[in-house]
Known about the structure:
The protein is an all-alpha fold. The chain is 68% helix and 1% strand.
Amino acid sequence: MSYFGPKAINTLLFLLLMNIWPQSVLAAELSVGDTAWLLTATALVLFMTIPGLALFYGGLVRSKNVLSVLMQCFAITCIVSILWVFYGYSLAFGDGGAMNAWIGGSDRILLNNMGRDSLVGSIPETVFSMFQMTFAIITPALIAGSFAERMKFSTMLCFSAIWLTVVYLPICHWVWGGGWLAKMGLLDFAGGTVVHINAGVAALIAALVMGKRKGFPGTAMPPHNLTMTVAGAAMLWVGWFGFNAGSALAANGNAGMAMLVTHIGAASGALAWMMMEWLRHGKPSVLGIVTGMVAGLGTITPASGYAGPIGALIIGSSAGLICYYSTAYVKGVLHIDDSLDVFPVHGVGGILGTLMTGVFVAILGGSGLAAGMTIGGQVAVQFIGVIATFAWCAIATWIILKVLDATLGLRVTSEQEVEGLDTVLHDETGYNL
């Protein structure tokens, strides 16, 4: 009977309560499971930029420019990381006081007041900050695809730093940091506005301000290494699970649904783009199916925490079709040399996904519509978010590029462009065969 004395019974009850009692009842404290998942998700999102996006973009350019693209992705990763520590995190997620509707404050400058025990929800604030840093990294890296093969490296560094500060951080705060769009009720689970519309619009403005590559559109400029591009695309697909499912900030059912709909969006976008090529040109292309996959992923991103599986199927398929025609229109009709199709894939996909989030949040298995909010009202809020992001990004990006053009200069010379950026800017070549 000694095994069932009062002390043993109390210990047993305590252990049972620790396992079955809601954590919020016992104490609001760190969750090991949530933390482990967010650590993994953070690594996955960084994996999207290097090596994923670097290889995806690197294979799409001509062989004389492959190292320049890889270098840009690595350099952007480094400079954004340092700026995030200095002031980026604070301006995006800090308390801006009276200005909080527009920008964060200085309470987290140099990650001040962030200790080992600081929490955001059930995860360490260090992990949350690092997770959000990876989003800040990939957004300007996406823009680099629009001016590939012609921008000076020094100018690219300055542009990325200034653009992060003037464009990314305010919009990130508006949407995710408690700013005015968040208060209005904008739904953007993982970056339809903050990442994809932002990067896509900046890419469009950059392509217009910089002008066409020498020989475009008359000279064929096919990808030099589609094998590299497909490898990078595969890494993007896997990394995107951290991008979207990680945005639940917990290892729970919301993260599981986000992962499921992300995969459905990618697969349906890839198949829709492939079928369009097959019908119009008689043959499906490898470049087409991986581009459709990226379009599907970008479009499902804002809805990934709200849409159900059927909604994801519709969103992904729509992305494959609409982004396919957008790409053809931007280059074939408007003759805008957005080198690697950043605007028609990410910009158009982000706009489409943000608007469709307002619809599928409440139907076909979706969830997340605020109490008292109608579908029409939510779509209206989503539309305001699209317009605000588009306008701020377009105007600010244009000003940044014009100032840089008047000071540092945007482009390499015509002779340097012909020779290739690898040799001219980095004194190296990607291949020594």
